[in-house]
Amino acid sequence: MKRHKTRMMMLGIFAVVLAIMGWRMAGAEDDGAAGGQQPLAVSADTVALTMKPATMPLSGTVEGLTSSIISSRFSGQVTQVLVEDGRAVRAGQALFVLDMVELRNALRVAQNSVNQMAAKYANDREDYKRCKVLYEKGAYSRQQLDSARTKMLASQADYDSAQANCSSAEKQVAEATVVSPVNGVIANKNLTNGQNVVAGNQVMTVEQIDAVHVVIQVEQRDMAHLKMGDTVAVTVDTYPDKTFSGVVDVISPVAGKENRMFQVKIRVDNPDLLLKPGMFVQVQLDLGEPQPVLTVPQKAVLGEKGVQYVFTVEDGKAKKVRVKAGDILGDRIEITDGAAEGMIILTDNLDKLKDGNIVQIGAEE
């Protein structure tokens, strides 16, 4: 009996404790409902119209207006290398010299052959003249005259061949000194003194860069905006404060097989040789008059799993709105879908915002 009373007392105490806890929790909920959620302070901007330049930014590379491959017309040993990479050269300037000992010996042999053939031809020609006089007097037969004429013609052919061989030998001696075909800058030199070169093998290039080509790839849809002679602005990170002016010089009539894009070359005068072959540059193609587009501050656009969105305000609460962003225009970004002009866009404390949060907008930025 005593044990039963003790158990009943403990159950009663437990019930009282539960009642008190429930009362306190209910009171806390009432306090929360009465006090309300604390609003989050935010700043805002609006969706506004911005004039978007009708230009298309593209990346390109610089190449020499002409790139002349330098090689030797015949094999031999290099005795002098007269230039280095980056050296400016003029058309006709010597680049390197091959060993000319054998070439000069061959030239002397050819010259001696010319002298011998000239003497023989002169002698046979005089013989033919004498035979012709005697034939006209009846002292020589027709056969003897024809034989003398044939001998003279053979000597004349030998003399002509000797002259041709001598001319070739003279040309080889001259070409042992390899010269630049154009004004330009030396590049890709692969040549040293004493090196044996093989006829036709490339040993360097001469890049003509007093004017250069900027090469870009243009999609089919944008080709209608391009025509020969169009003026194009070119910039390069190396010279951030300088803009180079170029003109469309070459438009490929055929798209590339792999990327289906058209190659366009823009000619840029480069008198100070600032633009070097291989440099990466930025090109702005003019596509017409500027157009008004909707924009918001860049920082207002958030992304999550490939989806872009902004926060607006509806009935004092943050509302998440899905948008589609376009090009960046200074510190703002184009909105191509999901927003209307004048819509309020929240711009700070975005990392703390959730859809439905109560917000308090401060001064607009």
In short:
This protein has three helices and 22 strands.
Helix-strand layout with pairing:
Blueprint (H helix, E strand, L loop, with lengths): L1 H34 L4 E3 L1 E3 L1 E5 L2 E17 L4 E6 L6 E2 L4 E5 L2 H36 L5 H34 L1 E3 L4 E4 L8 E2 L4 E17 L12 E5 L8 E8 L10 E8 L10 E7 L4 E7 L4 E3 L2 E8 L2 E13 L2 E6 L6 E3 L12 E3 L4
Parallel strand pairs: 1-22
Antiparallel strand pairs: 2-21, 3-16, 4-11, 4-15, 5-7, 5-10, 6-9, 7-8, 9-11, 11-14, 12-13, 12-15, 13-14, 16-20, 17-18, 18-19, 19-20
Low-confidence stretches at least 5 residues in length (pLDDT < 50)? 25-35
As an assembly, this protein is single chain
Question: How would a crystallographer describe the biggest sheet?
Answer: 6 strands, antiparallel
- What structural category characterises the helix and strand content? alpha+beta
Per CATH, the architecture of the domain at 40-53 and 291-361 is Beta Barrel
Instruction: Indicate the proportion of strand residues.
Output: 35-45%
Rg, nearest Å: 45 Å
- Using the coordinates shown, work out and report the CATH topology of the domain at 40-53 and 291-361: conserved putative lor/sdh protein from methanococcus maripaludis s2 fold
CATH class of the domain at 40-53 and 291-361: Mainly Beta
**Major β-sheet strand ordering:** 3-16-20-19-18-17
Euclidean distance between termini CA atoms: 79 Å
Helix share, percent:
25-40%
GO cellular component, one term: efflux pump complex
Protein name: Efflux RND transporter periplasmic adaptor subunit
Family: Belongs to the membrane fusion protein (MFP) (TC 8.A.1) family.
Organism: Selenomonas caprae
